[in-house]
From TrEMBL:
Residues 29-127 form the HTH hxlR-type domain. PANTHER family: HTH-TYPE TRANSCRIPTIONAL REGULATOR YODB (PTHR33204:SF37), TRANSCRIPTIONAL REGULATOR, MARR FAMILY (PTHR33204). This is Winged helix-turn-helix transcriptional regulator. Keywords: DNA-binding, Transcription, Transcription regulation. Transmembrane segments: none annotated. It comes from Streptomyces lienomycini. Residues 1-22 are annotated as: Disordered. The keyword Transcription regulation applies. It comes from the Bacteria. Pfam families: HxlR (PF01638). InterPro entries: HTH_ArsR_DNA-bd_dom, HTH_HxlR, WH-like_DNA-bd_sf, WH_DNA-bd_sf.
Length: 142
């Protein structure tokens, strides 16, 4: 058998180096790392609130009344395990716990800002598209 030569041309902006040039999700792919960092229900909202500074567990519970204490604990533990949040336990009774973003957690700010902007644009485009489709008489559904 002869050698296979790579004929695929990579978009340098989307995959500027080999770690991003994969054919399946890889743990070391920078895009997968970034997506994993913000994955999970409530995670982006917790990160958003922690961007404003350290917060206590009770304060976070107050900010998110629909978030159960169990799920909040799980999300904060996951963020800690990912190296995105540091925990400080203060002495006393009851023990007070403060959660604060690490430098890695703070690095997610640009991603959250971009995700928000992209979501707004998608909402605008899909709403415009739906409005245009509704005005088109006789449009066949696929």
């Amino acid at each position: 058998m002869g050698h296979q030569t790579e004929t695929h041309v990579w978009d340098e902006e989307l995959a500027p180096e080999p770690r991003g040039r994969t054919w399946r999700p890889e743990a070391g792919c920078p895009v997968e790392v970034a997506l994993a960092a913000v994955s999970g229900r409530w995670t982006t909202l917790l990160l958003r609130e922690l961007m404003g500074g350290p917060r206590g567990f009770t304060e976070l519970r107050t900010l998110f009344p629909d978030l159960s204490a169990k799920v909040l604990s799980e999300r904060l533990r996951t963020l800690r395990e990912r190296g995105l949040v540091a925990v400080e336990r203060r002495r006393g009774f009851p023990v007070r716990t403060r959660y604060e973003l690490t430098r890695a957690g703070e690095a997610l700010r640009v991603l959250l800002v971009e995700l928000y902007a992209t979501g707004e644009e998608l909402l605008r485009l899909t709403t415009a598209s739906e409005t245009r489709d509704e005005r088109s008489p006789g449009r066949l559904e696929a």
